[in-house]
Specification:
The protein is of the alpha+beta class. 28% of the residues lie in helices and 27% in strands. It folds into two domains: 141 residues, Immunoglobulins (Immunoglobulin-like, Sandwich), CATH 2.60.40; 387 residues, 2-Layer Sandwich (Endonuclease, Chain A), CATH 3.30.870.10.
Length: 550
Amino acid sequence: MRAKMTDQGLTVHAIAGTYVVLLGFDMAEADCAGLRGFAIHRTDQTEGEAYWLTGMKTFEATDPGPQAGRKFSTRKQPIQSFAWGDYSAKPDHHYIYRVHALKGDPADLQSVAQVSVNVETESPEGGNHDIYFNRGSAASQEYAYRFKNLPPQNFGDAAFTWLSRGLWEAMVQFIADATGPEHELRLAAYEFNYPPLLDALREARDRGVTVRIVYDHRDAVLGAKNEAAAAAARITAECIQRNANPSAIAHNKFIVRLKNDQAEAVLTGGTNMSIAGILGHSNAVHVVEDPVVVGKYAAYWDVLKDDPEFGVIRPAATVLYDVPADLPPPGTGVVFSPRNSLQALDWYAHLASKAEAGLFMTFAFGMNARFQNIYDTSTARMRFALLDKPTSFTKPAERAADIERIRQLRLKPENRFAIGAHLTLNMFDRWLREQLTGLNEHVKYVHTKYMLIDPLGPDPIVVAGSANFSEASTTKNDENMLIIRGNKRVAEIYLGEFMRLYNHYAFREWASKQPPGSLEPKHLRTDDWWQDYFGDTDRSHQREYFAATQ
């Protein structure tokens, strides 16, 4: 949900997802003289708690000295930005955020304006879309503080639960909701080797549930791993290997649940059924309970179960979704691959070009040239991109050219890119060294595949699923992508999670490029730090967008 209030010349706009509340602030430029920043107080009406939110930067005059991991009340050490994210929110909670604009001496800050907004965070389960994101920050200050940068196996359930953030629990519950012989579970998987998930499927079968699985077996190493895991869980009788079309991969990650042969729900998204997919890099699970959509998945699975060649699977997948000439119809649709042509990929690029205010995309394996062109020519005032790595090319000439292309795109003020990274050294006086969990093999940071078109507008579009916005994912691989138009709740949840990871990695990418020992502690400023948030600047556009004042 969104809530916006203005009082005493201060505007606060709150956008609440499930685990994230984004806050945008705005003041007239003439009122900002002497502004030291914003203090944020949060009252949790659900749990009966109230406190000031905290940050890590301090004024030099009131700096208590370095201490790794220490945080400070924003009432004394305010936020010097017109946008902030509360990433400690909990689902289905009622919060009151009281924001103060502070001026004066750093040792005696005075509130010159304050505004309160009431918001209720979303439950992951809502309507016919249930959405779960794992923690996704593969290395973080919080993990370093809680778990000392040690492998999660050293801490067991505590670390796994923290990393999962409800995603794994949702997968288990989805399977558990198949209660007996009236139910059937149909899986399509790429990586299919997480023992606890296979155990949950075996337990479902033991309850009388029909369990049927199509999984990738074309890569010798991955195929053997999948096969061994299925054998260990004693469910091989229900497994169908996907071997046809050896130049492609069976890249789906979905489970269809039927009851009495009727469509009940589908669990989909970009999460591979492996420990890395569920607990390592960033991923999402999206449950849809629309019987028409679920029926499409069931029909698609019926085609996959025969291990079809391209000549069979391409026309069968194409006919399940008729790509529109322009915008999709309101509601939820699903695009399946492999398809007869690149029409769907071209259409995704067309949708991206329609963004007027904001475009947000994730890229796990580099940015396809179509989308590079969109980020070059789009008229949207803000274009965010979150990448796992700057390019997926391996040949030196192609790799160098692609990296240069990304560098040129980043020079455009409308474009804001972040690439996965973590703090490998104690480069700051209050920051802990970070280390990856060791769960990730190929993709270290960003594995989600989604696009948000004007997510804060009246008619948002979300495209999300297993496909990497690439040519291979369109005409070769088994893939699925949800197309959701007009659902503000879905768009706000995805946007909150995007900004959580964007801000996490944007800072770490910058820090990773600084030579060791070159960084001096940066304190809060006492000059006119706010000036860059006005005029025709990228920060000004961001202020207007998140404060909903443009």
